[in-house]
Amino acid sequence: MPEPKEPPAAPLVVVMGVSGSGKTTVGAALAQRLRVPFADADDFHPAANIAKMSAGIPLDDDDRAPWLRAIADWLVEHSATGGVASCSALKRSYRDVLTSAAPRAVYIHLHGDRDVLAARVAGRPGHFMPAALIDSQFATLEVLQADELGAALDVAKPVDTLVDESLTILSTLATKGVTLP
């Protein structure tokens, strides 16, 4: 694979996907390469959400609303300097909350085989998200639409490759005249 092109400016990126897709790992590595701050959306969940998920109960839209607003606020705070946030952003309406706050945010959707992702989730000791909820996340997931800024990447690839491909996507968008922060 050719060397990825570096984006011309520090972009604002949301690394999205279901639990176990590698959002935190890829997001943190991408932020390091871009030399911008990283935020893990798991850290923005209110205690009630964590308790609900820990009990094996899927979140509903009302549960997600304050969490999404907190992530949107973080994106706004970093819109001038750039940043990377990991966030499931499963539904278009959730992404619309983030995009309305940060219109130039680029979505990198990490997708993969359900069984592979469920095994990853099951292998995370001490995490509040149980593997039993993976099916509810797949049921909720709405893939990126043509009018949304971003691309989907298969998590079967190594992290470094996913980061390189993300950088190429960001550079390509900038080359096409998409204004990045």
UniProtKB/TrEMBL annotation:
The keyword DNA-binding does not apply. Gene3D superfamilies: P-loop containing nucleotide triphosphate hydrolases. Its EC number is 2.7.1.12. InterPro entries: P-loop_NTPase, Shikimate/glucono_kinase, Therm_gnt_kin. The keyword Nucleotide-binding applies. GO terms for molecular function: ATP binding; gluconokinase activity. Pathway: Carbohydrate acid metabolism. It is an enzyme of class 2 (transferase). It comes from the Bacteria. One of its GO terms (biological process) is D-gluconate metabolic process. It holds the Pfam family SKI. Keywords: ATP-binding, Gluconate utilization, Kinase, Nucleotide-binding, Transferase. It catalyses: D-gluconate + ATP = 6-phospho-D-gluconate + ADP + H(+). Transmembrane segments: none annotated. One of its GO terms (cellular component) is cytoplasm. Belongs to the gluconokinase GntK/GntV family. This is Gluconokinase. It comes from Pedococcus badiiscoriae.
